[in-house]
Amino acid sequence: MRDCRIPQIDDAEIHNRTYRHGDKLIVTCHEGFKIRYPDLYNMVSLCRDDGTWDNLPLCQGCLRPLASSNGYANISELQTSFPVGTVISYQCCPGYKLEGAERLECLHSLIWSTSPPRCLALEGCACSREDAAGPWVVCSADSQKRPGAS
């Protein structure tokens, strides 16, 4: 019989002192994350005699919401799971207006409070982020629109 290795579980703390055959894994998730076991009827992970863990849990948050093309959100490109209570704010690039909720919140059910918004082009306006000057977006040589105005 072999000892088990210390498992790597993202967003979790492992509290075991030993990792021997038959030991139960003692895990707590970081705040805002919930523990999920592959076998929903067995909420225990045991060290098997071959040195592996059975039924290894995950600490889960809300999955990364879809990004809006022509817009951006205040989240890291690398983050894939978000704790309960996280609020994500969306903004559109200049020349686009937000359709939908500006903010999403990760709920206790591990889903987002609403669908991500979309960024729609302002009518008759083709520009990029570099075209913005102050509170105005330059859409052509002779017209200007405020961001979010239609």
UniProtKB/TrEMBL annotation:
Disulfide bond is among the record's keywords: yes
PROSITE patterns xref list: SUSHI
Family matches, as CDD domains: CCP
Record-linked Pfam families: Sushi
SMART domains attached to this UniProt entry: CCP
Signal peptide: none
Keyword presence, Disulfide bond: yes
Cysteine disulfide partners in this protein: C92-C119
Keywords, sorted A to Z: Disulfide bond, Sushi
Any coiled-coil regions, as ranges: none
Gene Ontology terms describing biological process: negative regulation of complement activation, alternative pathway; negative regulation of complement activation, classical pathway
Domain Sushi: residue ranges: 60-121
Name of the protein: Sushi domain-containing protein 4-like isoform X2
